[in-house]
Design goal:
Layout: H1 7-17, E1 25-30, H2 36-46, E2 51-56, H3 81-92, E3 97-101, H4 110-114, E4 119-122, H5 127-140, E5 144-150, E6 153-159, H6 166-170, H7 182-185, H8 189-207, E7 216-221, E8 227-231, H9 239-245
Parallel strand pairs: 1-2, 1-4, 2-3, 4-5
Antiparallel strand pairs: 5-6, 6-7, 7-8
The structure holds zinc ion.
């Protein structure tokens, strides 16, 4: 260390070198499956010392999804996904700070999960969870990166202060059975990989104050190779935003 280095700089360096940096900003990844795994890998690979990763999932590793859930191995089948994912990141990126919450994001706990986060990545696969997470992030003023994949199609969008949110776009979950689920339509693993990695990129851009998809839905079809970005206007009467005001 140079004699002339200001104390604040050396303190910041010490903080960056610490494994338990309390000042690191929390990046919360909900869902450690097909989207969460590539997103976590990408976030850890970038290796930012000012970031700590929080993985939220209540599920266990299942053999049928391993091809796209790249952090889990056959030997992990039956283990909690959060533990398997944390261990995979620790093996490859030992300096990355990771903590886990083995719980499913639901009405009772979702505000607590997102509260205080610098950014949340939604890698869940149900509409119900996506609306809950969106509403909680809007209410808590926490930026959100939404991602989804079905079949050959993928989409992502981020929600930041003042932008349109997921509920501005879709209003409410579709009636049960009206939209093909991931299980019915299947998921192409490579599409999940691309969307998950791009969710991580967008989250890092949000941390740097330069989101590219705030209130913009980016839709990609890996079969036709069509890609479009639709700018969404905040919707008057959006319940998420009304709750924010209330
Ligand atoms: Zn809204």
């Amino acid at each position: 260390m140079s004699e002339r280095e200001p104390a604040s700089v050396s303190e910041a360096r010490r903080a960056r070198g610490s494994d338990s940096d309390a000042t690191a900003r929390a990046v919360v990844v909900i869902g450690a499956g097909g989207l969460g795994c590539p997103a976590l890998w990408e976030l850890a690979r970038v290796g930012r010392a000012d970031v700590r990763l929080v993985i939220v999932d209540d599920d266990v590793v299942d053999l049928s999804n391993l091809q796209r859930q790249i952090l889990h191995r056959e030997a992990d089948v039956g283990r909690p996904k959060v533990e398997s994912a944390r261990d995979a990141l620790a093996r490859r990126f030992p300096k990355v700070q990771v903590s886990v919450r083995r719980e499913r994001a639901g009405a009772a706990n979702v505000r607590a999960i997102v509260s205080g986060a610098a950014v949340v990545l939604d890698g869940t696969d149900s509409f119900g969870a996506k609306f809950l997470i969106n509403d909680a992030c809007v209410a808590e003023g926490v930026p959100l990166v939404h991602g989804a994949v079905v079949g050959w199609g993928g989409q992502l969008m981020s929600v930041t202060g003042g932008s349109a949110c997921f509920r501005c776009l879709f209003e409410a979950p579709p009636p049960e059975g009206s939209v093909a689920s991931c299980e019915q339509a299947g998921i192409i693993g490579a599409v999940a990989g691309v969307i998950g990695a791009r969710m991580a990129e967008e989250a890092l851009a949000i941390l740097d104050g330069t989101p590219r998809l705030a209130g913009a839905l980016d839709v990609w079809d890996a079969r036709s190779l069509e890609r479009r970005t639709v700018r969404i206007k905040p919707r008057a009467g959006c319940e998420a935003h009304m709750r924010e005001v209330a």
